[in-house]
Amino acid sequence: MRSGFWNCVRASAAALAALALAVAPGLRAQDRAPRRIQVEKYVIQAELDPATHKLRARAQVQFIPGEDVLNATFELNNNLSPSKITDAAGQTVVAQRYQQDGTLRVGFDRPLPKERPATLTFEYDGTLAGGENQPVEGLKLAYVGDPVSYLLYAGRWFPVSTYQVDRFTAQLDITVPQGLRVIAPGRGEMKPAPAGKATWSFVYDRPGFPGSFAVVREQPQRFTESGLPVEVYFRGPEESQAQAYAEAAGKIVSFYASKFGPAPLTSMALVEIDAGSVNGYSAPGITFLSPRAIGNKLNYRLLSHELAHQWWRGMVSPASRADLWLDEGLAGYSEMLYVEELAGKAALEDVARDNEIAALTNDSVPVIRGASLEEFTPEYTSVVSKKGAMVMHMLRWVIGDEAFFNGLKQYAAAFAGKPAGTDDLRKIFEKTSGMNLEGFFIQWIESSGAPEFKADYTVFRVAPGKCQTLPPNKQKEGCFRIAGKIKQDMDTFRMPVEIRIDSDAPEPEIRRVDVAGTASDFSVETFGRPRKVTVDPENRVLKYNDKVRIQVAINRGQQSADAGEYEDALKEYQRALDINRNSSLAHFRIGEVFLAQANYQSAANAFREALNGDQEPRWTEVWAHINLGKIFDITGQRERAVNEYNQAVRTRDNTQEAQAEAQKYLKEPYRRERRPEVSEK
Ligand SMILES: [Zn+2]
Description:
By secondary structure, the chain is α+β, with helices and mostly antiparallel strands. Among the domains are: 316-446, Orthogonal Bundle (Neutral Protease, domain 2); 454-535; 546-667, Tetratricopeptide repeat domain (Serine Threonine Protein Phosphatase 5, Tetratricopeptide repeat), CATH 1.25.40. It is built from 18 helices and 27 strands. The strands form 7 sheets. A 7-stranded mixed beta sheet has the order 4-7-2-1-10-13-12, with no helix packed on it. Strands 15-16-17-19-18 form a 5-stranded mixed beta sheet. A 4-stranded antiparallel beta sheet has the order 8-9-14-11, with no helix packed on it. Strand 18 (280-283) and strand 19 (286-289) form a beta hairpin. The two termini are 24 Å apart. It binds zinc ion (ZN). Zinc ion binds at residues 7-8, 305, 309, 328, 331, 385.
């Protein structure tokens, strides 16, 4: 059983296995250096033939050199090949294709002068039929076919410069077979087209990211009840979800408008793509959703995340690739705000705990270097989206709700339609809070890792009248003074941290301590005798403790297991067991690895250990029984298998449809679908 769900990340374990999860060596030069060229506008004529998966296009790129340039580099999907590239005078220019990183390097005979507008026209075509040779290997980001074609900006289906950073305008003329419908950002109209075809033309004239569109067969289902006109293009079983998604979209957009300021959109199209692509993707006024993500119940977290990108990407975008977290992290935090709006504070804290674990699962790369990771991988999501969201969550606590929400609104207003950098965001929050936040951003954006707190302290009895912080008239009995230090390992760390002192008094004492460096003093007086000091009781700070370490190790193990790296996975799970021998979850995950390796005896032992462990989380019980049942079925011991399935039924736990699974194999023995893969190690 797989738990956990990543927005913007494909969830298929098989697809993940195909992916090398390698970390690129570092930021590419273009990630922070001034840009050599700035793309301004695209004029694209594209023709799609879904029957043959073919795309044929002509893209005119208008750009401004930031310096005298002898060459310019563009990214273009490796499935597409240019047949001709010409300059403004119509002269053919030469280009070199680099398949490794999907770039196209165009060279010029003489330098293009700085600041003088230049033009290149690319004629290219190719077959976009599957996940092969896509910008992220195995993931369909640009696809032409039935029943839906989708060409996402992330799929580099046109020559892209400074991905996710350069804002551009666009004119798209998309020709498709008659009867199909094109959904693209901007104003649309029909243009004359050859017989049997239709040309849909779109103009998007505010600089932004209008480089994504879809081609569908169906008519939209239209909804206007929420105040936001929503067109839904869902197919098959997902069609019944159309109304729920449309209504939710309207609610989410008006919630964000109340928090961030006016919506940068007047209508929304929700388009179902297919399971081979990302779970969700955003373009101006369009949200692309995979059927897996739409599911059979409103996935409001994914929808709220994707809609937040209308503000954080569409409206305000990262000034450089080092600032990508401003796009993903703010969308991630907007999603958390919507969880809070819909389900309350406790639900927000639950998501914060999950995000904390996700953020720490890949904590060796600082947020500012997130661009060195491959987009749509768990590592990227962990660093850029989850940790980015947690930085906003912590910031809100440090500066308080008023300064935080004022800051968000001011940030959106000041940078609407423009790029913004991390320093721009920091300065706005410094203004609304009156605090210096440089240390905070250095800690959480530029550095990696997280602290682990310990409190050392002594308790003194203080005579009546000598208690310094308590009112004299209440000191007949004197008080207790608890004095000590909060310790943690990170020299540069500086942030307020709460401590809670539980004492004999009915109410605990809560104090904010400014933690700076490895040891910070605190002193608190209480009437009751202090019993226990807890650092960061409300979990405001991204930090390690034993519980977090166990979950992080298990998460890392799962990432390795998903990639087929079973040895590494077992090492991580063992790390979790080193902290807590009784972790049912660690034993359960070990059982899964052995099961995948067809090592049935070891798998059965591990599932038994899971049953005898701390039963955290509870679902380990029902699923350990089911897996034991499967092992007995595989090894021809039907009676013992039935016994396990019956025990699964008795737990009444239905996490991830466990009960249906147990019933299914009570009726009919479990059979392996195929021979197990044999690990090469
Ligand atoms: Zn996102």
